[in-house]
Amino acid sequence: MASRFPRIAFVGSGAIGRYYGALFTRVGENVTFLMRSDREAVRRLGLKVKTPYEEFTLAKMNVAENSRDIGPCDLVVIALKTTANQQLDALVRPLLHEKTVILTLQNGLGSDEQLAALFGAERILGGLCFVCVNRTAPNEIVCLETGSVSAGVKCLVGDDLAALRWKKLVWNIPFNGLAIAAGGITTDVVLASPDLAGLARDLMTEVIGAAAKLGHSIPLSFIDQQIESTRTMGAYKPSSLVDYLAGNEVEVDSIWGEPLRRAERAGARVPCLKMLHALIAQVTKLRLSRPD
Amino acid sequence: MASRFPRIAFVGSGAIGRYYGALFTRVGENVTFLMRSDREAVRRLGLKVKTPYEEFTLAKMNVAENSRDIGPCDLVVIALKTTANQQLDALVRPLLHEKTVILTLQNGLGSDEQLAALFGAERILGGLCFVCVNRTAPNEIVCLETGSVSAGVKCLVGDDLAALRWKKLVWNIPFNGLAIAAGGITTDVVLASPDLAGLARDLMTEVIGAAAKLGHSIPLSFIDQQIESTRTMGAYKPSSLVDYLAGNEVEVDSIWGEPLRRAERAGARVPCLKMLHALIAQVTKLRLSRPD
Fold first, then answer.
1. pLDDT in tens, A154-188
2. Around Cβ A143, how many Cβ atoms within 10 Å?
3. What would the pLDDT profile of B46-68 be if each residue is shown by its tens digit?
4. Which of A73, A101, B66, B211 is the most exposed, having the fewest neighbouring CB atoms within 10 Å of its CB?
């Protein structure tokens, strides 16, 4: 079967990029990874992927140091952290021909619009990942919860990307946020404290209210659902907490900053989101300036 | 001149208790300190007091290990941290006779009422300290900003203690709170961030609103005054931050918890105070459980 996309590039080859890129590679797609760290290890050793359901190794992964070495592709998948979005133009432009499709899997809000402004809205697709993937060695990743997208991957197709992004934020804003702002705690600790769990609900209510002002209707019953499904996750470390604890940049602007700006522009009342954003921005800045 | 209070005891002999007790001792009052840490050093060496204006040493300080060794006094000054208030009954009762006056200099809300419930409201006086005193050696304290109370001390007498306590909280709630919740920062860092300074103003507005609901009128212009006077303090560490950084207990309940409960009971809207309390409670609990 001929691929719809003869040549595919992954921009941003952290854990998420490697995971989805590996799934594409495994089903025979021609994927090249724009990879910075671990490039030589992956080139030499390939990549081992562990999930709760299986384990496989790709002996050969195409990796490149810069976009010009890859050249024009038919599909470019963006799995870059949003903190590096100022590099999108330089990283992506050499990968484009007239009909290249760009799929962004990035967190939060803002990337869809930034890509559309740079490369034209008609070629941009947005995707949301509901997975938990961590790098456990230079050539190994572990996926604790497998989720959406394609190529042998569970995938839901929605028809309102912005609404889906807000829906994902209903979880990310409180849980990624409180995990950091309350001192570096897992989701079970948030739920175990009546005050923090109440705060998570208040934040969810604010996010749903902001989404409503922007025309995206999310039922309030979604809050209970999210709390319940979080309960099943145990001592879960949200991705932002993983970044924070590792001393890496946290996606502050796309997860809290841009949603806050859009909420305020729409006239939504979001005092807790505003406060959470201010605290996270400061705490993460300090962390980068004085890691321990 | 015969003292109105022939025998005076200080309960809680941290930096604040030592400072005011020393001032009383210096003007000839008969003061005994109920002292836990540094007792032998102070007994042997006395106490050195440094302020921006002078430096003096008291060669002899009366210190005692427990209240029964002191016995009934005419004035009992409480400078205990509010985190130890469950010990008030045991510490204070042996110091009382029928007419003993009790003056509490403690932070935040709740101590006045707890003391009144234990020992009778008619003998309780409340005082507020606007000072910054730190222990710099077992027998030395440094006072960076001298403030109110009596015995050669600048002292303002107010006629509405509760209103004054709320007025003090207009500063303590945001600045002590954000110093901890934003990762351990001084007041100048709060003011340097437009987001955090805005949050401080939002919190002040909430506290003034709550005080108003409780019948204490504080003009909104007080906010600008407080911001401006904080600007002159430079890289100031609020007392709660000093406690937090030293790994000591923070007065979470009297500074944020009790004001929050009273505000909510009065029907005031205090979303930022509520959030700040939840975060500080968690962060300080973590700090005590895993000091570094």
1. 556 666 889 999 999 999 999 999 999 999 999 99
2. 22
3. 999 998 888 999 999 999 999 99
4. B66
Distance from CA of B226 to the nearest CA of A (A): 20
Which of A83, A110, A145 terminates a domain? The answer is A145
B149/chain A closest Cα distance in angstroms: 36
When divided into structural domains, chain A yields a total of 2
- Asked whether residue B290 carries a pLDDT value surpassing 80, the answer given is no
Quick check: B84 contacting A, CB < 8 Å? no
Residue B82 belongs to domain spanning: 8-145
The residue whose two tokens read 């997975």 is: A131
The CATH code of the domain that includes B266 is: 1.10.1040.10
Residues A130 and A34 in one domain: yes
- Please indicate whether, in this complex, the C-beta atoms of B195 and A271 are within 8 angstroms of each other: no
Residue B97 tokens read as: 């006779």
Q: Is residue B156 part of a domain?
A: no
Residue A150 in any domain: the answer is no
B208 closest CA partner among B163, B175, B238, B240: B163
Interface check for B98 against chain A (CB to CB < 8 A): the answer is no
Q: For residue B184, give the chain A residue with the closest CA.
A: A283
State the CB neighbour count (10 A cutoff) for residue B162.
17
Enter the tokens of residue B266.
């009065």
Alpha carbon distance B200, B174 (integer Å): 5
Question: Of A101, A116, A145, which marks where a domain is finished?
Answer: A145
What pLDDT score does B132 carry? 83
**B292 has a chain A CB within 8 A of its CB:** yes
Chain B residues within an 8 Å CB radius of A244: none
